[in-house]
């Protein structure tokens, strides 16, 4: 879709959701009969603390820029469930500022069950590239990291700040800078997020190689391909990496290493 079509699709979706909210659901009193179902634009604008004119422009697709914060207030006012809220932000091309961080007990149980059934090394990355879950094969492959209670399970910290990674990742000189470019692409809309800023600052302070790669500002999509490792006991290992997004939690990435 072109920009105009995207704005219209966003406005039409918001309008359709407004029409499905009964005033009584939000404890909004009414003394007059309504000609159309749902909330009035004035009521939603008041709930969102934005002007009626601007809200009307959003529904009509006339405004060029709607901030993520304004969209979040609209989503809250319309009481959008998770799927509809995600769809709203996809239409806008913006990142939901209220997207929660991932902790272990928030990972869908079916994803954990799938992870355990996969025979090949597999792990789950959150939006900050922390490995939040992994299977036994991954624990065996990444011995000295995932099999220990290390300070951090962040894949960037491991790659650049763990001395053993330099020899474990057989083509470290090529893979490490590409990893930085993939991370920049993945968090491009969230570079001003405090946790992202803190991670980048920590990485730049702890690794001159990361700092050089980060300052180049290279960007590339996270792709699969051959991954080779020099395991201390298993010797040279080669895998084909497959990256998958969790459908109902797109901020989670499932990485599977398939041995040919």
TrEMBL record:
Coiled coil: none annotated. Residues 13-85 form the HTH cro/C1-type domain. It holds the Pfam family MLTR_LBD. It comes from the Bacteria. Gene3D superfamilies: 3.30.450.180, lambda repressor-like DNA-binding domains. GO terms for molecular function: DNA binding. This is Transcriptional regulator with XRE-family HTH domain.
